[in-house]
Amino acid sequence: MSETLRLVQSLVSERKIKVSAHGARELAEDALLLEEIATGAGDAIVVEDYPTDFKGPSVLVRQKDEKGQLIHVLWGLAKGQSSPAVLVTAYRPDPERWSPDFLRRKK
Questions:
Q1: Which residues sit opposite 73 in a β-bridge?
Q2: Domains of the chain (ranges plus CATH)?
């Protein structure tokens, strides 16, 4: 498992979460609620891991919303910080751009 995801899951379980401005817009656009994303974080599956990103480690995960539909969430940590977990963005993935399980980008 990704160390970034492990830390994010721990922080989310403690409700140590910050939502970026971009993340807030994306939540609104796709009618997603922070509570359902936080609840689903424990069962997240890594899609892409960015442990050395220049802004700080981040991880794109696939998880479920409250209706059981698959969504993508990009979680991160500010560079040099170990808290809070930052919800960078969350969205409903486009089936035209992703494999049927939403774990791999189509080429």
A1: 61, 90
A2: 3-91 (3.30.2310)
